[in-house]
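Researcher: Let's do a round of design. I'm pasting the structure tokens now; please hold your answer until I've finished.
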């Protein structure tokens, strides 16, 4: 009987450690259903829509964290890339060129971070803290100095020019649906699937986990550690570019002062809630999708309960602390149970 009980506990512990993000999401979603009795299918699909921008950024953040690094610049990068994307659209009246501008600009920003971290061997925290300040400052400076005919707004806002022939298709795209699902949310799902495939089924993905687990061992096995680090920052930049493009298609404007504010923290929180270890080398990228949707639902629960919105980040911060405690304690508890089992076997 005791052996069956231990086997059951071991199975439960294994499932929890591997898929805790699913149970956390389910608990938060059930709580949302309870507090919002008038929840409709549109309300459910809006969770995806409101998760898309930060969720796509979080996918890149997850790859960075898996390698044992961090990127604090993504929020400011979103505003910076978004500003250039708006200007590209206003000048060319082309959705395609705006998209290419967003991806190229984001990739270049990521490359700057990657080279400084990967080649110059500078601490990622310091590098991305510096570029966070640089990107935000440059965005505000450019918006203030550029002609309103290009920025599309005043000296404090980048805005799509509504007189352009492609304005309506661009804005409609960001707010459209496919089979009742928001298009932006479908982007999040597709990109999550791609990232999951890369990290689980490709050589590159396995190298990222190896670098995060043990950098020295990874170098000894011939893995290009510097190249992997540069690559994840570039990928994060590209994904931030995609998010900037989607943000503009949804909102038609970028505020240099507020757009992307605290998004780096929310992305990190989604990664942690998704079960990826901040120490690097462990975790499933599919958990990021559940992590960011959990955070989005928390926002909606706060609104449904008519709580003071100023407490929003307090609630999110508390949940993040709990998630980290669970993540930290799970291996300790598992090791303790294994040690107890070993002692019992020796006693026999």
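Researcher: That's everything. Go ahead.
Model: Designed sequence:
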């Amino acid at each position: 009987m005791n052996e069956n009980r231990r086997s059951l506990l071991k199975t439960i512990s294994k499932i929890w450690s591997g898929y805790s993000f699913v149970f956390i999401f389910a608990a938060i979603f059930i709580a949302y259903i309870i507090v919002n009795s008038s929840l409709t299918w549109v309300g459910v699909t809006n969770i995806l829509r409101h998760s898309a921008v930060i969720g796509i950024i979080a996918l890149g953040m997850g790859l960075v964290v898996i390698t044992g690094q961090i990127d604090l610049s993504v929020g400011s990068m979103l505003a910076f890339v978004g500003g250039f994307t708006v200007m590209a659209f206003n000048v060319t009246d082309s959705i395609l060129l705006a998209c290419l501008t967003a991806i190229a600009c984001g990739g270049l920003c990521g490359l700057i971070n990657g080279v400084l971290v990967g080649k110059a061997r500078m601490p990622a925290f310091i590098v991305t803290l510096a570029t966070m300040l640089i990107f935000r400052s440059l965005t505000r400076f450019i918006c203030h100095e550029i002609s309103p005919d290009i920025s599309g707004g005043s000296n404090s806002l980048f805005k799509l020019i509504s007189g352009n022939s492609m304005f309506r298709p661009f804005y409609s795209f960001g707010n459209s649906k496919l089979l009742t699902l928001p298009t932006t949310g479908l982007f999040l799902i597709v990109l999550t699937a791609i990232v999951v495939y890369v990290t689980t089924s490709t050589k590159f993905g396995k190298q990222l986990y190896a670098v995060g687990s043990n950098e020295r061992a990874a170098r000894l096995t011939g893995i290009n550690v510097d190249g992997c680090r540069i690559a994840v920052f570039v990928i994060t930049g590209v994904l931030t570019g995609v998010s900037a493009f989607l943000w503009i298609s949804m909102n038609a404007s970028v505020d240099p002062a507020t757009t992307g504010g605290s998004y780096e923290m929310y992305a990190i929180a989604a990664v942690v809630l998704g079960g990826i270890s901040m120490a690097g080398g462990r975790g499933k990228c599919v958990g990021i999708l559940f992590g960011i949707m959990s955070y989005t639902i928390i926002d909606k629960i706060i609104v449904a309960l008519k709580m003071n919105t100023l407490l929003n980040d307090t609630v999110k911060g508390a949940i993040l602390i709990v998630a980290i405690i669970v993540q930290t304690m799970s291996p300790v508890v598992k090791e303790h149970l294994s040690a107890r089992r070993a002692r019992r076997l020796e006693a026999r």
